[in-house]
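Now for a chain:

_____
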Amino acid sequence: MPARGEQPSPLLRTTGAVAIVVGIVVGAGIFKTPAMVAGITQDHGWLIAVWLAGALVSLAGALCYAELCAAYPHAGGDYHFLSRAWGKRFAFLYAWSKAVVINTGSIALLAYVFGDYMTRVVDLGAHSSALWAVAIIIALTAANILGLSFAARLQTAMVLLLVGGLAAVVVAGFAVPAAELTSRPSPAWFASTPPAGMLGLAMVFVLLTFGGWNEAAYLSAEMHGGARAVARVLIISLSIITALYLLANLALLHGLGLNRLAASKAAGAEVLGLHFGAWGERLLGVLVGLGALTSIHSTMIVGARGNYALGRDWAPLRRLGRWSAGRGAPVNAHVVQAAISLALVVFGTFQADGFAAMVEFTAPVFWAFLFMVGLAVFRLRRRQPGIERPFRVPLYPLTPVVFCAACAWLAWSSVAYAASQAAVHVSLLLMLAGLVVLGGLLLHERLARHA
């Protein structure tokens, strides 16, 4: 067994954890999704109802994760839950997909978003966006290597700025001049009902915009306050996120009206422009860049902990499983994560379309594994009824059933969309590569036992 100093310590307080979760979830999506959902629903009431439904499904999932985190706190997060419920071989495939493409691909793409914004401020010439992306990945990785306490303080500061910027959008939306409002007819809520398929499509976009709260599981071993602290963090985080999303949508509806919102390519910029003028529109660029930064930073924090858990379980990867007690961080895991992310940035510079497809079409894998995490609540209760569970899912079994159904539906929708784009092979190739690596690890273990 490793010494105590080589393992995660409870250094993270509620404020820092909430900032990390909010930072993962609230990114550039909230500046784009409201217009898409408005175009799909074509009704004020259904627009808000879909966002509320997304919040409730996310809360159901958060409560499932809270039980698992309270019973099995571990820096490996949902990788650890999958390992306990379905075995470490199955869990490896999930950790593999996250380490190689899902987390690192998200970091790379968000770094490109940040690079696109910064290029308008300071153009570095050929491949300027890629150069900015490389710079921010290195800078934020260095911040994380300095330790969790520093990283959490930095994240809290950035999230406060982001929330302040979103508040400016809300204020601008509700402060639209009276003349602008009187030129539009009063909206009728629930005047028409969209087809079920269109409501389903709207929910896909909403749930994707809510995505990321599950990453709080990777912080469960470092939470100050014991096992129940993660439940508190998840509930507070989702309450803040839901309030921000609903206020943003209501403000955009008030400021632009349904038709103008649905047709807008940059609804936030339009609203800010109506109230603050030209500099207000530029403010949106800052918010998008800041949203990218908070998401990159949060993803780095939790992603490295997943890699650390891999190193603890598999002897050939043991260097990943080293923990720096002085810094409160898995330094080697951060370095490997940064290296993969930088490689994807370089690859994306020359293969933009293929790169975007590689990341986007791993969604079927992600939602399929999240479905299995939901099932783990049932399986672990049955297999390990004697384990102390400081927090239990309320309304069991209804709550985990709702979460599992939502994950299964999103997995199916992701597969259908990937098939329509002739890109299902991306997910299949990712899993095939993972199976090859898994085979190599199992062979190494067998040879080591017989040595």
In short: The chain has one domain: 4-450. Residues 1-5 have pLDDT under 50 and may be disordered.
